[in-house]
Design brief:
single chain, about 200 residues, alpha+beta, three-stranded antiparallel beta sheet, 6 helices, about 40% helix
Length: about 200
């Protein structure tokens, strides 16, 4: 658990490095983008599934020529492969174990097209309150909302969620301690900043 918590800050940084690299490759000049990064650790089922939500500028700052460079598109194939490389390199450098080296090698073989990176183009909310509301849904939402808890009998908890894989409502029933463990693993260390800007 502690090792996974120690990876969250490097995870956020490597997301930014990845996008700066992609922006620079597309524009053929070194660029620094602007980013708001939110880390979220839970998936729909409440399981531990750390991932990033990044609001990025559509381009970056060219420090050498002192100008802003706008980008109209991001090549998705490049982004997937770059994200895989940055993430796996970060894991290898941070954990430094034989097991993680083996896992990294397996991931390159198993996912030759890179890792999933969902890109949605959108307009910046017109007022900062709108942006705050957009980010808040990722930051303040619990792993499982109360309305998704279907039953509790003193020893077991039943809950439901919509699965990404099947796009259907799935139901789970687990003992209380398993359920508590699933919720507690999403508590961040004291002082951890879940929203960062770069």
């Amino acid at each position: 658990y502690q090792r996974s918590q120690d990876l969250l800050s490097p995870l956020m940084r490597c997301g930014v490095k990845c996008l700066d690299d992609v922006f620079s490759r597309v524009s053929r000049q070194p660029l620094k983008g602007g980013y708001i990064v939110v880390v979220q650790t839970h998936g729909r089922s409440g399981q531990y599934n750390p991932h990033l939500h990044i609001i990025a500028t559509s381009g970056g700052w060219d420090q050498e020529n002192h100008k802003w460079v706008h980008l109209d598109y991001l090549p998705y194939d490049m982004l997937r492969k770059k994200w895989q490389w940055y993430l796996l390199t970060m894991l290898r450098q941070t954990l430094k174990t034989h097991d993680i080296n083996r896992l990294v090698d397996i991931c390159y073989r198993k996912y030759p097209n890179g890792f999933v990176a969902n890109v949605q183009k959108g307009d910046v909310p017109s007022r900062y309150e709108s942006l705050a509301r957009y980010l808040a849904k990722y930051v303040v939402s619990p792993p499982i909302s109360l309305r998704r808890i279907d039953c509790y009998n003193g020893s077991h908890v039943g809950y439901h969620y919509r699965s990404h894989h099947t796009d259907r409502v799935e139901r789970e029933r687990v003992d209380v301690y398993t359920f508590m463990g699933r919720m507690i693993q999403h508590v961040f260390p004291k002082g951890f900043k879940r929203i960062r800007y770069y």
